Amino acid sequence: MHEPVLEARGLHSFYGDSHILHGVDFTLARGEAVGLMGRNGMGKSTLLKSLVGVVTPRRGEVVAFGRRTRGMKVHEIARLGISYVPEGRGIFANLSVRENLNMAARADADGRCDWTFERVLDVFPRLAERLGHGGQQLSGGEQQMLTIGRALMTNPQVLILDEATEGLAPLVAREIWRIIGVIRDTGIATILVDKNWRAVSDITDRNVILVKGRVVFEGSGGALRAQPELLSEHLGV
Amino acid sequence: MTNEVLLRTVKLRRTFGGLAANDRVSIELKRGEVHALLGPNGAGKSTLINLLSGDIPATSGEVFYCGRDITKLTPHERSLIGIGRSYQKTNIFPGFTVRENVRLAAQSREPRAARIFSDAAAFGPYCEVVDEALHLVRLAGVADRKASELSHGQQRQLELGIVLATKPRVLLLDEPLAGMGHEESLKMIELLRGLVASHAILLVEHDMDAVFAIADVLTVMVNGVVLITGTPQEIRASREVREAYLGAEEQQDA
Amino acid sequence: MDLALISIQTLNAVQYGLLLFLVASGLTLIFGVMGVINLAHGSFYMMGAYLAFTLTSLTGNLLFTIIVGTVLSALLGAVLEWALFSHLYKRDHLQQVLLTYGLILIFEEMRSMLVGDDVYSVKVPAWLDFAVPLGSVMTYPAYRLFMSVVCLLVALGLYLLIQRTNIGARIRAGASNRDMVQLLGINIDWLFRLVFSLGVGLAAFAGMINAPASTVSPGMGTQVLIVSFVVVIVGGIGSVWGALLASLLIAFADTFGKVFIPDYAGIAIYVVMAAILLWRPEGLFKS
Amino acid sequence: QSGPVKVGLMLPYSGTFTDLGKGVTNGFKLYVQEQGGKLGGRPVEYLQVDDESDPSKANENANKLVKRDKVDVMVGTIHSGVASTMAKVARETNTLLLVPNAGAGEITGAMCSPNVFRTSFSNWQPGYASGLLAAKKHKTAVTISWKYAAGDESVKGFREGFEKGGGKVLKDLNLPFPNVEFQPLLTELATIKPEAAYVFVAGAGQVKFVKDYAAAGLKNSIPLYGAFITEGTLAAQGDAAQGLQTVLHYGDGLKNPKNDAFIAAYTKAYGARPDVFAVQGYDAAQLYDAGLKAVKGDTKKKAEMIKAMENAKIDSPRGRLTFSKSHNPVQDYYVRVAKGTENVVTDTIVKALADPSPDCKIQ
Amino acid sequence: MVAVFLLALAGFPLLKQEFYSELVIRVMVLSMFALSLDLLVGYTGLISFGHAAWFGMGGYVFALLGTKYQLTNNLWLTLPAAMAVTAFFSFVVGLFVLRTRGMFFIMVTLAFAQIFYFFFHDVKALGGSSDGMNLRGKPVANIGEWVPFELTDVNTLYYFVLALMVALLLFMALLLRSPLGRALQGIRENEHRMEAIGFPVLRYKLAAFTIAGSFAGLAGYLFAVLNSSVNPEMLSWHQSADVLLMLILGGMGQLWGGVVGAFTFVLLQEVLSTYTKMWHLWLGIAIILLVLFLPGGVISIAQRVRGLWQRRPA
Ligand SMILES: Nc1ncnc2c1ncn2[C@@H]1O[C@H](COP(=O)(O)OP(=O)(O)OP(=O)(O)O)[C@@H](O)[C@H]1O
Ligand SMILES: Nc1ncnc2c1ncn2[C@@H]1O[C@H](COP(=O)(O)OP(=O)(O)OP(=O)(O)O)[C@@H](O)[C@H]1O
Ligand SMILES: [Mg+2]
Ligand SMILES: [Mg+2]
């Protein structure tokens, strides 16, 4: 396997007094796609937020591209090449679609620009029709497309999608899965959270299941499917 | 009696600038039916719900509730006569406890304007409704947490809990299952099945498993107009729908 | 009233409107775009005027004064942002009201300690010290016309900055969702500091440009405060053209209020503001 | 009685009128200094309160001096609204009040009271005197003032004086206090084309007005009159004010021995030339001194003291100063011409002018 | 803590310091003013920048009835009249201004307040004068022949105001846990959703605006009585800003926030202006420090203390 681009070691994260992550270890290698699964409220988003620095873990450390991120600002971590699409989208309501995309534009650390404005619009033709609309005026699914497109505009090495396809129509959701496949081939690593565990496990190399802030399973999609009792116990399937 | 039409629209139309987000939309919601509304992103589903709930006024067309023209009613008036809705983008009272979120919804049914000096939280009838709603959406365990401290999925559950506590007869649900985990989704489907006997439900949802599991009638919208209304079988069989919306979904389910 | 008179009054109104815009321009950035309720705007304006007075009495050169003064003020703005405002972005907006009120008090007292409480004025630079004849008895000072031009340039510059550049988009994005902007790898702290200092610089700039046409006096800051907010709000928060249009409308209300309904002139601008906001509850230009 | 007399200075030490407040304070203290730090033979203890020119705090601030600090005399203030509340408190508590500036007519009019004296003017006085002067050369005039009590009263005085001299006021223009966008009014003035104009605005407003007036080219075509319009602000007004004729009960260019000494002493003490406000403060101290001396410093003998003050003939830098029945100054009004940074006195337009104060009921 | 505070207040006049008694009356009146604003700002989320309009109007109602037109000086007539008039006008103004939200609401309320300011500044029939009006005396509390108390006595006035303040606090406390109060807080939190779950939001806001206006009118009435004078500055935006500052300083959305804010603000001013000439400077610095280090307002000190208290046994 390739060298890890993002790594968490023994993370303990809190919100105030409530202890959410209990010593989570997690790695993501270059070009790898990992699915993060678990029921509602198990700490998936908290783990992702800890990785990108929005939540500061009280113990443990996060290493991104070989650098410890403790003490780094959120934007500095992002600049290492990590792009995070939070659940609930975070669209800039007061900016137009065009501005939402362009404001984020950035070449990657090597100066490459694989994802351009045009390419994002190619992937989401719906957005091309709405360029002048304000973020607030988009339908829910259009907003989701926009955040993903905006994340891609930063030409990340690591793409983290929380609730990746929430609100997307099946056709578009499938397009997202396809794109993730495509970008994985270009060497971008992804972490996916999505309720559709089957679709996720189809395209990921590895899956991690969280239960109450602890990792209870780690393995390929095949391995996951081979253990229906795991699925039913931890995902309620 | 079960198939009584509760909510009916006649040629509803709503434009944003030059864009017709809804055009000539005529649908009927009947008691005892789950009516699923499908369509690609931006088709106008949420807009339709907004028109039905009064959140935005219609450009033209009418809405009837139990035969009464309610096109001009404000959102709160519609809520009070029994039309409840949930939001696609979570729309709760983030600073309040989960219980207070739901309690407020229950309070709206009994404003008790006259009793200015009584303690709202201790009022029995509210409490019952609240407990029931919290139980239904499986949030009883976190009732005293602040809503903003819930996880995304839990907030989605709360979103639904608030609607249920207003005891509506017509439920307009905008992607209620989005963000909920697999198990929670299944429970919600069960819950909706239980409710449908006495309610009319309009369900906007992109989760096809769920939709085909509970919908009695489906309407597919594209670009603001109704493409087709029919039974699950008819919809599945429609080539147009497959092209516009489902894509190769069939194969997976098959 | 005859046509000639009306047209002169119209000229007065336009000129005054442009001036109002200039005064409010810094606020358009700090309040309109960044969303920081900055009551100290008037103090920055006053600071500019006093800087103009002090520096011109030292150097005798207005242009030089304006450049140096603007830079100094912008630096002060950056320091204030770093020391005070940067801690408040995540708090209730009303905390900023309190903070900036504290600043007003400090600024007034500092002014009194450093320059005293006298009324001063600043000389119009010689090359602009002439007047254009207007009608039979009146003349129009060229400096006022010059200020109008400056103001239009400021409006244009602001518009380009806010609406047309990537930086502008990022600032606006930051005002609506700070965390998300950071997640996109943008240093929002730095950006906000920049914008804030630019806003302070603009306020001081307005004070300096306006000093020769007006006076430099204690309390001048609070006088422009309300009308600046009126302009930014009536125009629609964050909209440069809106603010410009609002300035003109307010100036027309004020000018013609004084002429036609002198007894009610004091409320003319408030009546206009109330009417506009009742008609368009989100200002003239909704952004 | 040997302890110090407590003098409560309630004046603006912050805000727009700070400068005037300081002028009054300096003037008052200068006189006391000249008397070796004593008034009526007793040492003086000052208690200063910043009234912020805020009438809604006036009651509290006045009571602070009267009820908390138990002062023997209150001196204040600039703002008329604040001063009339002070007058009310003074009357209620029977405390002596010296008003060193505020010109509201009612202080020595409807609200007059034995224990309230004014050492400055009533708004009517300088207005009236200006009217007399303007009427000497002109037949028609237009007035411009801020729309507030002082402005109204001053304009009323001007009108009376002007009409007495045979002139006619064509129109009263006004604008809301403290608005300083004068352009529309100047335009209107230019269309009416009166022979003269009279203006009443204050502080920074007067500087801007005079500059705007000159910049609009009106200075030469329509002579401008005013009372305070150049007072204390000549330096800031620069060329625009040069040659302006004003009428006031004082001028720093007034030639008399008292004034020369006063100016010298003031300049020495404070490093700046005095203005009319300093004189009014100085005279407040003189007046109080006169009262105290008459009772040998025994502040308990109020009636006697008041009597003495009523009859005081004060040698003021402004000339001879006496008081009318209503306790308002009776004083000469001078014609002054702005030259450089001095208001040079060229003439006396009316001697011993008293406000008729018809509403005052102390006899 | 509350009991101690109220006891201290009740005992204060025993010190027989007339000036300080009047000072405390003034602070209590301002507390009531801030409290009424809190109903809007802290609980309903309506940031009014024109609240002084009602304050001033309440005072002017008394001035007009008692002094200018000399209709009556009776407490039992003029006080309800002040509250009724302000309630009426705030209701009417509310019908207009409540169409706007957020910053726009701030400015529209300011606009209306300025318009009222103008009326009392310039319209002669309303006692209009920039210098205001001195009043003929305190209201008389006669009921027929019977005179229960005399407000001319400072101590009586003190207890009268104290009683009203306590009553107002009690009213607010009850209101806030009542269905109406809860609904108002819901509106602050998420107005849109309140409408969607069936609350006639506008009506609720109007109720809050009217109640708050009328209590501000009460406070203004008492202020006029205390000062025996009224003036347009009571309606000025400075006054609106002051009360808002007091509230923010004390802590918005807290029952005692307004009271604590008024006490802090006035005491800071008193102390600083007594001991230093540059008191504005120190006041400014004090305010800035408070903002930076006490995000929840001065009242949050009490909460912190209580927090420590509770943690100790554990
Ligand atoms: N801001 C917060 N403050 C306090 N507790 C929080 C906060 N956000 C989340 N939590 C709690 O932390 C736990 C984990 O939340 P998290 O958002 O990580 O869950 P999740 O696995 O992403 O769930 P979901 O699938 O519903 O999004 C939950 O129990 C939640 O209630
Ligand atoms: N306020 C608005 N102003 C302008 N256009 C709008 C507005 N609201 C919605 N639209 C547009 O109307 C169309 C329909 O939007 P709607 O939200 O109804 O879609 P939807 O069917 O709910 O889609 P999704 O499944 O993605 O939620 C979209 O193209 C959207 O961009
Ligand atoms: Mg999550
Ligand atoms: Mg939708």
TrEMBL record, chain A:
UniProt cross-references to InterPro entries, sorted A to Z: AAA+_ATPase, ABC_transporter-like_ATP-bd, ABC_transporter-like_CS, BCAA_Transport_ATP-bd_LivF, P-loop_NTPase
Coiled coil residues, start to end: none
Superkingdom of the organism of origin: Bacteria
Domain ABC transporter: 6-237
Pfam families named in the record: ABC_tran (PF00005)
BP-aspect Gene Ontology terms: L-amino acid transport
Keywords: Amino-acid transport, ATP-binding, Cell membrane, Membrane, Nucleotide-binding, Transport
CDD domains registered for this protein in UniProt: ABC_TM1139_LivF_branched (cd03224)
GO MF annotations, alphabetized: ATP binding; ATP hydrolysis activity; branched-chain amino acid transmembrane transporter activity
Keyword Transport assigned: yes
Family per record: Belongs to the ABC transporter superfamily.
Name of the protein described by the UniProt record: ABC transporter ATP-binding protein
Species of the source: Ramlibacter albus
TrEMBL record, chain B:
Domain (ABC transporter): residue spans on this chain: 7-248
GO molecular function: ATP binding; ATP hydrolysis activity
Pfam families: ABC_tran, BCA_ABC_TP_C
UniProt keyword Transport present: yes
Keywords: ATP-binding, Cell membrane, Membrane, Nucleotide-binding, Transport
Gene Ontology CC terms, in alphabetical order: plasma membrane
Entry-linked PROSITE patterns: ABC_TRANSPORTER_2
Gene3D superfamilies: P-loop containing nucleotide triphosphate hydrolases
Superkingdom field: Bacteria
Protein name stated in the entry: ABC transporter ATP-binding protein
TrEMBL record, chain C:
Keywords tagged on the record: Amino-acid transport, Cell membrane, Membrane, Transmembrane, Transmembrane helix, Transport
Localization (cell): Cell membrane
InterPro entries to which the protein is assigned, alphabetical: ABC_transp_permease, BCAA_transport_permease
Gene Ontology cellular component annotations, sorted alphabetically: plasma membrane
GO BP terms: amino acid transport
Record membrane topology: Multi-pass membrane protein
Membrane-spanning residues: 16-41, 61-85, 142-162, 190-213, 225-252, 259-279
GO molecular function: transmembrane transporter activity
Family: Belongs to the binding-protein-dependent transport system permease family. LivHM subfamily.
PANTHER family in alphabetical order: ABC TRANSPORTER ATP-BINDING PROTEIN (PTHR11795:SF442), BRANCHED-CHAIN AMINO ACID TRANSPORT SYSTEM PERMEASE PROTEIN LIVH (PTHR11795)
Name this protein carries in UniProt: Branched-chain amino acid ABC transporter permease
Origin organism lineage: Bacteria, Pseudomonadati, Pseudomonadota, Betaproteobacteria, Burkholderiales
UniProtKB/TrEMBL annotation, chain E:
Membrane topology, from the record: Multi-pass membrane protein
Subcellular location: Cell membrane
Source organism: Ramlibacter albus
Pfam family, one: BPD_transp_2
Xref: InterPro entries: ABC_transp_permease, LivM-like
GO molecular function: branched-chain amino acid transmembrane transporter activity
Protein name, UniProt field: Branched-chain amino acid ABC transporter permease
Chain segments annotated as transmembrane: 27-46, 77-98, 103-120, 157-180, 201-223, 243-268, 280-302
Gene Ontology CC: plasma membrane
Keywords recorded for this protein, A-Z: Cell membrane, Membrane, Transmembrane, Transmembrane helix
